[in-house]
Design brief:
Oligomer: single chain
Structural class: alpha/beta
CATH topology: Rossmann fold
Number of helices: 9
Bound molecules: NADP nicotinamide-adenine-dinucleotide phosphate
Strand content: 5-15%
CATH class: Alpha Beta
Number of strands: 7
């Protein structure tokens, strides 16, 4: 009997949402998944239990990706546990949702550190561990391509990541490593609920759903399916690309002020 070595995959932010569903999907294919999280240890353990129940294996690693030393510790754990790596999914994200005119230095610094610096530092460490080629995947969002009210700090960081994807595809390609992004529209997770229900000035999410050609938010499963494809052997000749999963939202006009309450527009533009 031959024992095949499992595919080793690191997913940042895999305790909840899209990362968690992707972990389970890869677990069902027999992968060993490194489940990173920031604070929710219980949810990370539940995520690992999902992976194991699906037929995979893995470990959980607490690391705050805003901190370079934590990113190093995350990849040190991968090296110590598995000695090598097949795929890195830069999925975790966090930012401040504010009009540009209200962004402070700490919002800019923390958003860049959490969303972009972490992707670059993580990809460098990941590529070093990929001894048989591999996959690097950034999870980005609609705000990188179109303007959405209060989304500038995160959208611009995601745009930077999509640019890095192209540079990394060139540098890592000769080593058999593909680098791509999966770009989501409105995806039904905790963070979408936060954006439309708790960010001041945003109108209820329902007001934008009718503007999406497919008339519904995406699911974490929609995103995980696209990510799974880009991580698979079927996507071996695709690199440097951004696959958009948004029900058509970015091919229609972006909502901008029309998905706010109007108070935000008045405050930013000084209208009475
Ligand atoms: N939801 C959407 O509408 C949407 C749309 C397009 C793209 N996306 C992108 O999809 C990705 C996943 O989003 P989601 O909605 O699935 O997220 P989510 O449900 O809000 O979960 C966020 C995950 O990231 C982790 N995390 C947050 N900050 C972290 C940090 N500093 N260090 C390490 N882990 C951290 C969380 O860990 P804890 O549980 O420990 O807090 C959690 O596992 C993000 O890149 C997001 O921008 C989302």
């Amino acid at each position: 009997m031959t024992t095949e070595t499992p595919r080793v995959v690191v997913i940042t932010g895999a305790s909840r949402g899209i990362g968690r569903l992707l972990a389970k999907k890869l677990g069902a294919q027999g992968a060993a998944v490194v489940i990173n999280y920031k604070v929710n240890a219980d949810l990370a353990e539940e995520s690992l239990a999902d992976v194991v129940a699906a037929g995979g294996s893995g470990i959980t690693v607490q690391a705050d990706i805003e901190l370079p030393e934590d990113i190093d510790r995350l990849f040190d754990s991968v090296r110590d546990e598995y000695g090598r790596l097949d795929a890195f999914v830069a999925n975790a994200a966090a930012s401040a949702f504010k009009p540009v005119s209200q962004l402070k230095v700490h919002h800019l610094d923390r958003s860049y550190a959490t969303n972009t610096r972490s992707f670059v530092l993580g990809a460098i460490r990941a590529a070093e561990l990929m001894d048989r080629g591999g996959r690097i995947l950034a999870v980005t969002s609609y705000g990188s391509q179109r303007a959405f009210a209060t989304y500038a700090a995160l959208g611009s960081a995601k745009a930077a990541n999509e640019s890095y994807v192209k540079y990394m595809a060139n540098e890592f390609g000769p080593r058999g490593i593909t680098v791509n992004a999966v770009n989501g529209g409105l995806i039904d997770t905790d963070s979408l609920d936060y954006f439309y229900n708790r960010v001041p000035g945003m109108a209820p999410m329902e007001s934008v759903l009718s503007k999406i050609p497919l008339q519904r938010p995406g699911t974490a499963d929609d995103m995980a399916d696209a990510a799974d494809f880009l991580l698979s052997d079927r996507a071996g000749y695709i690199t440097g690309q951004v696959l958009t999963v948004d029900g058509g939202l970015t091919v229609v006009a972006p909502p901008y002020w029309s998905d706010t309450t109007g108070d935000l527009r008045a405050a930013v533009l000084g209208e009475s």
